[in-house]
Amino acid sequence: MKKVIASIALVTLVLASTTQVAFAAAEESLNIEKAAIKAVENSQPLKTVNQQAEVIQKNYVSVKGQMNQTKYLLPYSNSYSLVKAIILYPLQLKSALEQVNNTQVVVTNAIRMGAYSGYIELLKADYALNTQSELMNSLYEDYKKARLQKEQSMLTDAQLRLAEIAYEQTRYNYLNAQNSKDSAKMALNNMMKEDIAKQYAVLQDNNIKPSAQVRALDDYVQQARTNRAEVLNAQSTLDILEEQYRLGIAEIPTDYEFYKQQQEYEIAKAGNDLELARISVQQNVTDLYAGLESSMKKMEAMSYLADQAEQNYQAAQIRYENSEITFIELNKIKVAKAQADINLKNAELDAWLMQAMMESACGAGFQP
C-alpha cells in the first residue's frame, strides 16, 4: 500500500510541476531592476512626495518671476526690505525645493531597497525549490532501487525504511520550499501592485553577483557624510539662516541686540543640527558596515563548506561504486551537499543585498 501511495504522490507532483511550467511559459521574465522600477512607479508614498515637490516647484518659479519683476522697482524705492525680499525669498523656496527633492530620492531608494529585498527572498526560495526538486527526484530513484533490493533480500526492513524516510523528508522540504516561493512571489507582486498570483517564466539573477572585496569603513563614512540627504538638508537650512542674518543685520533693526542674539542662537542651533546629522549618518554607516562584514564572512564560510560538501560527495560516490558504503550513506552526503549549496546561495544573495544597501546609504540614503 505504501508503494502505491508513494507512486501516486510522485505522479501528482510531476503533473503539478509540468502544469506550473506550462503556465509559467506564457508569462514574462523578471529581474531585480524591473521589480524595483515597478515598485517605484506604483508607490503611493512616493506619489505624495512628488505632488509636494510639484507644488513647491510652482511656488518657486512663481516667486522667482515676481522677484525678477520687482527688481525694476528698485530705482524708484528706497526700501532695503525690498532688496532683502528679492534676494532671500527665492533662496528660501529654492532650499525648500532642494530638500523635498532630497526626500524624493530617499523615498525612492527606500522603495527600491524594499523591492531588492523582496526579489532576493524570491530568488532564495526559487533556488531552494529547484535544488530540493532535483534531490527529491534522485532520492525517489534510490528509494525505488531500495525496494527492489529488499525484494531480493539485499536490504533489511530497517534499511528500506531509512531510504523511505530520506525521500519523504526531502519531499517535505520540497513542499516547504514551494510554499516559501509562493509567499515570496505574492509579497513581491503586491509590492509591484501586480496580481498576487502572477507567475514568471524566468527569474533572472545574472546581475546579482556580490563583490569579493568591500572598501574600508572610513571610505564609506566620508562618502555618506558628503552625500546623505539629512546632511544636505541641514547644511541648506544653515546656509539660509546665515544669509538671512547677513541681510537682516545690514538693515540695522530697531531691536538690534535682541535680533542679533536671536539669529545667532538659530544659527548655532542649525550648526548643531548639521553636526548631529553627520554623527547620525556616521553611526548608521558604521552599523551597516558591521552587517556587511558579517555577510562577507558568512559568504566566505559557506563557500568553504560548499566546497567541502562537494568533495565529500565526490569521494562518497567513488566509495559507493567500490561497494565501500551503501547508497543510504551516500544519500546522507547527497542531502548535506544540497543543503550546503542552498546555504551558499543564500549567503551570496545576502552579501549582494548588504552591498547594495551600503551603496545606497552612502548616497542620499534610503531611510526616510
From TrEMBL:
List where this protein forms a coiled coil: 306-350
Q: Which Gene3D superfamilies match?
A: Outer membrane efflux proteins (OEP) (1.20.1600.10)
Record's subcellular location: Cell outer membrane
GO terms under cellular component: cell outer membrane; efflux pump complex
- Alphabetic keyword roster: Cell outer membrane, Coiled coil, Membrane, Signal, Transmembrane, Transmembrane beta strand
State the InterPro entries in the record. TolC-like
- One Gene Ontology MF term: efflux transmembrane transporter activity
Where does the secretion signal sit in this chain? 1-24
Q: Does the keyword Membrane apply?
A: yes
Organism's domain of life? Answer: Bacteria
Q: What is this protein called?
A: TolC family protein
Tell me the classification of the organism that encodes this protein: Bacteria, Bacillati, Bacillota, Clostridia, Eubacteriales
